[in-house]
Specification:
With 409 residues, the protein is an alpha/beta fold. Helix 8 (317-326) runs parallel beside helix 9. The protein is built from 10 helices and 19 strands. The protein has 2 domains: 85-225, OB fold (Dihydrolipoamide Acetyltransferase, E2P) (Beta Barrel); 241-406, Vaccinia Virus protein VP39 (Rossmann fold, 3-Layer(aba) Sandwich). Strands 3-18-19-17-16-13-14-15 form an 8-stranded mixed sheet, with helices on both faces. A 7-stranded mixed sheet has the order 6-5-4-7-8-9-10, covered by helices on one side. Bound molecules: S-adenosyl-L-homocysteine.
């Protein structure tokens, strides 16, 4: 799934740390989660939250020390159950239906009934579906034999609106007793606002296929961030921790120093969130994004929020920026929020030609961030300030906003 980018699910077991030659055990004796070791989604669950924050702060400081000042990390007041999107793979173990995550590097399912990072309502719905399959004679899909129907369930919840989307990923379009299943699920969970069947009939590690059928409701949910409303469908990337995302976006937009006149680029814009939130303070905004579904949602989002000074393009960000530079266009501010792999030299070369005074880099991987900052520095830009944010408590991931300025300004 493309939005693995920020999902923070990676296997690694926390080791003891050693200090001054003496070993201290800084992890809890008994894990808060019975499957945390097998699942590996929350590498730091058993380390006190304050220590996790210190570690992330240190990591960002070490990587950015030579570039700019790093402010203290913004952590969460309540760092549990923050994920608004929950994915579960379905299968059998000893004749019983199980759902959960794949053990790293395998397609073996680790059963997860409850997770301390995931929205509790979403986990409850997945549990209900697990319990319903037998009576509806729905078999889970077996990758080896190709038999069975249900592959995955995805639940997304708009924290601000309470809207809930359930995506049933099936291996075949034929879904016997579909209507009864949908009715029974809605009876058990009246809070569900839409149910979608997604067809994934390929041998692939991607969760979602390309074809969808709306079984109930609108086929999407809405959520609110920084006072704007966003349309969220099953596939495009949407930040999984909305509480922290609001703070991150506010910081990023403040760092841009907008006065109302600027030409702004929102690169790697997803469903257009940063650009739409910033548009009220800018002259005009241009968003660019590779994923077609995301661009479609972005256009809808601009319209829904009555934001008229924004346009979206579906393209590779580097190629698009190079095209703008070739056409002699200019930009005053560039927001960039690339995936974990970071940006490209092509993108940064084009930024240099477009000549923005400020670049606001939103990064979910401080290592590629540091690498890209070195490129920017060779091009007449300098990182000024960095603000780390903990978007993924209990995982090893850390997000940061960096203000980069043209050296001659
Ligand atoms: N700014 C958005 C999305 C960030 S996630 C937000 O805050 O929600 C990164 C986005 O970059 C994803 O939507 C992904 O589809 C997109 N992306 C990945 N590679 C890209 C590329 N080469 N060019 C443009 N967009 C890309």
């Amino acid at each position: 799934m493309e939005d693995r980018k920020k999902s923070g699910k990676k296997n690694r077991v926390e080791n003891d740390e050693s200090r001054g030659g003496q070993k201290h055990r800084k992890v809890r004796e008994k894990s808060l989660c019975p499957v945390s070791k097998k699942c590996g989604g929350c590498q730091m669950l058993d380390i006190p939250y304050e220590r996790q924050l210190l570690r992330k702060q240190k990591q960002v400081e070490e990587l950015l020390r030579d570039h700019c000042r790093v402010y203290p990390i913004t952590g969460m007041k309540n760092p549990f159950y923050y994920r608004n999107k929950v994915h579960a793979a379905f299968g059998y173990r000893k004749g019983e239906v199980i759902s959960g995550v794949y053990k790293e590097g395998t397609h073996e399912i680790v059963a997860v009934d409850r997770c301390m990072l995931e929205d509790q309502k979403a986990d409850e719905i997945i549990g209900t579906i697990r319990g319903m399959l037998k009576s509806f004679k729905i078999r889970t899909y077996d990758e080896d034999t190709g038999y069975g129907l249900l592959r995955h369930v995805l639940v997304k919840r708009g924290f601000a609106t309470g809207q809930v989307m359930v995506v049933l990923v099936t291996a075949s379009p034929v879904f016997p007793s579909r209507n009864n299943f949908v009715r029974a699920l809605r009876d058990r969970h009246p809070e569900i606002t839409t149910i979608v069947q997604n067809l994934n009939d390929r041998q692939t590690s991607m969760v979602l296929g390309d074809k969808e059928k709306v079984l109930y409701g609108k086929g999407y949910i809405e959520d609110e961030l920084c006072g704007k409303r966003f349309h969220i469908s099953s596939r495009p990337f949407y930040q999984v921790n909305p509480v922290q995302t609001e703070m991150l976006y506010r910081r990023a937009i403040e760092a841009a120093g907008l006065t109302g006149k600027e030409t702004v680029i929102d690169a790697y814009c997803g469903i257009g969130t940063i650009g739409i939130i910033a548009a009220g303070k800018a002259g005009k905004v241009v968003g660019v994004e590779l994923n077609q579904d995301a661009v479609r949602d972005a256009v809808r989002n601009a319209r829904g929020n009555k934001v008229e000074n924004i346009q979206f393009y579906c393209n590779d960000a580097g190629r698009f920026m190079t095209g703008m530079a070739r056409d002699g266009e200019q930009a005053d501010v560039v927001f960039m929020d690339p995936p974990r792999g970071g940006s490209t030299e092509e993108f940064m070369e084009a930024v240099k030609i477009l000549g923005p005074r400020r670049v606001v880099y939103v990064s979910c991987n401080p290592e590629t961030l540091a690498r890209d900052l070195r490129v920017f520095e060779k091009m007449g830009y300098r990182a000024r300030e960095a603000w780390p944010f903990d978007l993924f408590p209990h995982t090893e991931h850390v997000e940061a906003v960096v203000l980069i300025q043209r050296k001659d300004t």
